[in-house]
Write a structure and sequence with these properties.
Layout lengths: L4 H11 L5 H10 L2 H4 L4 H4 L9 E3 L6 E4 L4 E9 L1 H6 L1 H17 L4 E11 L5 H21 L3 E8 L8 E11 L14 E6 L9 H4 L8 H4 L9 H16 L5 E4 L4 H12 L3 E5 L12 H6 L5 E6 L4 H10 L3 E9 L3 E5 L2 E6 L1 H6 L17 E2 L4 H9 L8 H4 L10 E3 L6 E5 L4 E8 L2 H6 L1 H18 L3 E10 L6 H20 L4 E7 L3 E2 L2 E2 L3 E11 L13 E5 L10 H6 L1 E2 L9 H12 L4 E7 L3 H9 L5 E6 L12 E6 L2 H8 L5 E8 L3 E6 L2 E6 H8 L1 H6 L1
Parallel strand pairs: 4-5, 9-12, 18-19, 26-29
Antiparallel strand pairs: 1-2, 2-3, 3-6, 4-6, 7-10, 7-11, 8-10, 9-11, 12-13, 14-24, 15-16, 16-17, 17-22, 18-22, 20-21, 23-27, 23-28, 25-27, 26-28, 29-30
Helix pairs in contact: 6-7, 6-10, 7-10, 10-13, 18-19, 18-21
Length: 702
């Protein structure tokens, strides 16, 4: 990829001359889709990003929201899709490293990660290779740096076969007085590079992420993939903590897309400044690097700090203590962004034009249509076993058992539940955390499917008794120059924005990843949403049956199966389910019910429908005896619903009166068996039979 003729004409007009080689490469990367959001930025104004708890919204390395007067959390999300196809282990690992450094740059300490992963069909050999490599990369990196991966999602869909998605979110914790931003503060302050030496890995990573994957990408694009070093990242985490504690950091930016050139130019441009940078001063780990390589290499585990001149020695001492490289590479300045190399000027451009001057794309879009209902008949036993045993809906224990999800001693509700809950003892608050999407939903109906994804994630929080605080999104799409692809992408943006507004959940930041096309075609429009919510204390109802209460289904079914696992197995078509008209009220009441002493268990209904929810709730000691009017009610995936086990069903009916319907399903039992009656059909499964169905990942991969 190179600077297009149209972009080059704009740059020449701005500079009054031809750009140097280094300048052209900088503009190519910083004006790429990955950095400049040229196709998506015109749509992103649909999101509401403000709220009384929002401290820092979109535009920084991570968002910051307040959970008390003195305690803040950061929230950020990133994609590392193309690198994870070319090199699944390093691609995924460096995705974790990047989002953790985004957290550090706000002055926060990382406390939790979420991974939302999307692959081709599970029975495809190459998809399994990518899946295993990505999980190993996330596990090795996260475990080594001591940040727990506590929640997330895994989906398998044929349209990811040539282009998997790896979306990683991170939550950080800081006190109000530690807040740092990526906005340069004062001309004359020094720019200090701390961390690993700069090498040639990851060259052109931003532009690589902004083009479709070619058939030979796994070999030809390998130099664009970064190589991670989690042990250096751990040292950087602790050094950053000490630097912020000592008040030595005026502003900060991690070195991610477009490397040093991206981080330093964006930092000074955000403050309305330029810079004077000596590229020869950058500590390097490879010989004979040229100006373009030093500027654009995306070598990992590096941070750029703005430091007062009198504090430089203190920064150098802390870097030396942690055995980290440290270079004073220049200073914040008035005027242009200027870089010298070998005594000559390699770059001399307006910083704001470089960072924010990319023209936006005006693209055509075509909205998809909803199909009519045309359902196929299917044997209930066959469908139940196919849906419950589908790799997408089956147990993900094989994945999360590889993660150290308890390091840091904050994980109160662990992976495998609707949402994780982290103990924020500083504010006596539980922080619930959910992340994911559903490509079948958004393939069937981009707008309504995205609304459903937002509702499902917030329902996950409500099932643990939490109310939503804020969200970030990772908007993944195919080639936006194709009208049908851009139409689907526009649908997911508007759908997320509208439902998050209805749920009073500001979308405070995010990431866009387009050009996820390959020789197999475009990916489904995939709007991963990561949401945090708060509750008093850290206790939450289980998502497993206690075996002692009445079972209720709360929430209204959408009376349709569009986008469902049932249709994927049985065939046929249907429109997407209708979502509740009052979703905010529904999840608010559900959270209150979840916190009631009479509530023994709560589990949301979504992927795979009631069939999967009930199967997931069975344990060795507790099962259920459930009766439904018809078989299709088992497979309706309308979100905003939950199974509640309670010793006081009247209180639940009263709580939802006028808000949402409540249906009695039956009773929890103490025999570890799921007994289902659906119309004229009956099913009985022991806990061992259910575990065998749901254990497909471990069975095939161990």
């Amino acid at each position: 990829m190179s600077l297009s003729d149209a972009d080059r004409e704009l740059v020449v007009a701005e500079l009054g001359r031809e750009p140097t080689t280094a300048e052209a490469a900088l503009f190519e990367n910083l004006w790429s889709e990955h950095c400049a959001y040229r196709s998506s930025r015109p749509l992103l104004s649909a999101f509401d990003s403000e709220g009384e708890d929002v401290v820092v919204g979109p535009g920084d390395d991570a968002a910051v929201v307040a959970i008390s007067d003195d305690t803040y959390v950061t929230l950020g999300i990133e994609s590392h899709n193309h690198p994870s196809y070319v090199d699944p282990y390093d691609g995924a690992a460096t995705g974790v490293g990047g989002i953790v450094r985004d957290t550090l740059s706000m002055g926060a300490y990382p406390i939790a990660l979420a991974d939302s992963l999307y692959f081709g069909e599970f029975d495809d050999e190459h998809s399994r290779y990518l899946f295993e490599g990505v999980v190993e990369g996330i596990a090795d990196y996260g475990n080594a740096i001591g940040v727990p991966t506590v929640t997330g999602s895994v989906d398998f869909h044929p349209d990811y076969e040539g282009n998997p998605l790896v979306n990683v979110a991170c939550v950080g914790l800081l006190s109000a007085d530690r807040l740092v931003t990526a906005e340069a503060q004062k001309a004359g302050n020094k720019l200090v590079l701390v961390g690993n030496g700069t090498g040639r890995d990851g060259l052109g990573g931003a532009s690589f992420a902004s083009e479709d994957l070619a058939e030979d990408a796994e070999t030809e694009d390998r130099p664009a993939v970064q190589v991670g070093d989690p042990y250096t990242e751990k040292l950087l985490i602790e050094a950053n903590e000490e630097l912020v504690d000592a008040g030595l950091v005026q502003s900060a930016r991690d070195l991610g897309a477009a490397g040093l050139g991206g981080a330093s130019s964006e930092l000074v441009a955000k403050g309305g400044f330029g810079a004077r940078i000596d590229l020869d001063a950058v500590h390097q780990r490879e010989p004979n690097m040229n100006a373009m390589e030093i500027l654009l290499a995306e070598s990992q585990e590096r941070m750029c700090y703005e430091v007062r001149p009198e504090d430089v020695a203190g920064v150098e001492r802390i870097a030396e203590k942690y055995d980290l490289g440290c270079s004073v590479i220049g200073e914040v300045a008035e005027g242009n962004y200027v870089c010298t190399f070998g005594g000559e000027v390699a770059v001399d451009v307006p910083a704001e034009y470089l960072a924010d001057g990319a023209p936006m794309n005006d693209l055509d879009s075509v909205a998809p249509n909803q199909p009519e209902r045309d359902l196929s008949d299917a044997d209930l036993t066959e469908v139940f076993e196919a849906v419950v045993g589908n790799p997408t809906t089956a147990s993900k224990r094989w994945v999360y058992r590889q993660y150290d999800h308890e390091v840091g001693l904050r994980t109160a509700v662990k992976p495998g539940d609707d949402a994780a809950v982290m103990a924020i003892r500083e504010a006596e608050t539980g922080l619930a955390f959910s992340s994911g999407a559903n490509p079948k939903w958004t393939s069937a109906a981009p707008y309504d499917g995205a609304r459903a994804i937002a509702l499902e994630n917030v329902t996950n929080l409500a099932a643990k008794g939490a109310t939503p605080l804020a969200a970030v999104d990772c908007l993944n799409g195919g080639n936006p120059e194709k009208p049908e692809v851009y139409g689907g992408f526009k649908g997911i943006v508007d759908g997320l924005a509208d439902m998050c507004r209805e749920l009073s959940t500001p979308v405070v930041g995010g990431n866009v990843s387009l050009y996820n096309d390959s020789v197999t075609g475009p990916i489904p429009p995939t709007p991963t949403l990561a949401v945090v919510g708060t509750k008093d204390g850290y206790d939450a109802p289980s998502a497993a049956f206690a075996g002692e209460g009445t079972l209720l289904l709360v929430g209204e079914a959408g009376a349709a199966l569009g986008g469902s696992e049932y249709l994927a197995y049985a065939g046929g078509t249907d429109r997407f389910p209708e979502l509740p008209e009052n979703p905010g009220e529904v999840v608010s009441v559900l959270a209150a019910v979840a916190n009631d002493d009479a509530t023994l268990a709560v589990h949301d209904v979504s992927h795979g429908g009631l069939a999967v929810s009930l199967a997931e709730m069975v344990t060795t000691d507790a099962g259920a005896d459930v009766a439904l009017d018809g078989a299709l009610a088992l497979f309706d995936e309308t979100p905003g619903r939950a199974v509640v086990e309670t010793t006081d069903p009247e209180a639940v009916w009263e709580a939802f009166d006028g808000v949402a319907p409540v249906v009695e399903l039956g009773d929890a039992t103490d025999d570890g068996t799921l007994s289902l009656t659906a119309g004229d059909d009956s099913l009985d499964y022991s806990v061992d039979e259910i575990r065998e169905l749901r254990g497909v990942l471990a069975r095939e991969l161990d």
